[in-house]
Amino acid sequence: xxxxxxxxxxxxxxxxxxxxxxxxxxxxxxxxxxxxxxxxxxxxxxxxxxxxxxxxxxxxxxxxxxxxxxxxxxxxxxxxxxxxxxxxxxxxxxxxxxxxxxxxxxxxxxxxxxxxxxxxxxxxxxxxxxxxxxxxxxxxxxxxxxxxxxxxxxxxxxxxxxxxxxxxxxxxxxxxxxxxxxxxxxxxxxxxxxxxxxxxxxxxxxxxxxxxxxxxxxxxxxxxxxxxxxxxxxxx
Length: 236
What we know:
The protein has 5 helices and 2 strands, in the order H-H-H-H-H-E-E. It is mainly alpha-helical and 236 residues long. It folds into 2 domains: 1-78; 85-204. Helix 2 runs antiparallel to helix 5 (161-198) and helix 4 (109-141) runs antiparallel to helix 5 (161-198).
């Protein structure tokens, strides 16, 4: 077999060398592409991590602000009003019923003023009748014929001196009693205002429970203890 021509051998060597260059360039290109992919992936992970961190920080800050706002609202929603007992008594002593206004117990005002109206009516009625029967008695016993106011009373001509005196003494007692009742009622309104102010923030929960449980009853007279039942009433 004849040997290949020299130019063909050179062509083959050139193509082989060129192929190696192409392969080397391709490998370099692949390595560069892989490096770029890794860098892009790392950058993407970093961005995602930063986004997650930022979002978590925002959520935590939002939760903190929400808790702070709720705590502030909870504190603000707690009633801070506390009436002054001394102020309620002194103002109530000057103006009837004003102690209840200081305590913001407005629903008690109709009761307070209704009581004062009743006491005032009793004092006025008994005072008027006392003065009427007193004048009639003194007109009856004097010697002046022009003073006869007792005739204006029902069956006044038939009323004796003793009856008129008993009537005006009775209405005088009723008048004095009405005054005492009014003073006592006035004192009660002041005491009520003072106690209401003192117990304004007192817990008056309706939760009243009674418990019954077995117990050992101790005997202080030397006898043995005996079983029994124990009743306990809890006021909360």
